[in-house]
């Protein structure tokens, strides 16, 4: 039951990253996704893996609070397609994670599947450098946790690498592309 709740928390955080444009909304989204994925990492590989993933999410959230568009800007005008994407991905992820595939780890499969769809969608959908970097950090965390989605306990280094990558990407200076 905890695994299902953690998967839903991770999906909610990634959905907030998809729906948010302001730095507070993006920071809250990556923090929530990091906590949900950290709980899944705890269940799959123990407290050290959870600490690595959750710390990566918190460092990425702290970095996002420092740059980007000011305010929350969650669901600004024109974000209905993004909301439909979040709900559709959740429904398909629930169906695949719990009905199509069997065995333990349904919550991890759900979180991995939904975050590995939502984060790249946000990367492709956005022109805002802060949103791109935030979604890339969420993608890194999701890939680390997805290593355990097959029911096999992943090595601790997959979680550590995911946390470090999410932390490093968040601190990159955002740049707007310019034509020469």
Distinctive features:
180 residues
Structural description of this entry:
- It contains 7 helices and no strands.
- Helices cover 75% and strands 0% of the residues.
- The protein is mostly helical and 180 residues long.
- The model has no long low-confidence stretch (mean pLDDT 89).
- It is globular, with a radius of gyration of 15 Å.
- The protein has one domain (2-170).
- α1 packs parallel to α5 and α2 packs parallel to α6.
Largest sheet: none
- Number of DSSP helices? 7
Percent in helix: over 70%
Total tally of structural domains: 1
End-to-end span in angstroms?
54 Å
User: What low-confidence regions span 5 or more consecutive residues with pLDDT below 50?
Assistant: none
**In percent terms, what proportion of residues is strand?**
under 5%
Which structural class best describes the helix and strand composition?
mainly alpha
Number of strands: 0
| General shape | globular
- Give the topology string: H per helix, E per strand: HHHHHHH
Rg result: 15 Å
Oligomer: single chain
Mean pLDDT: 89
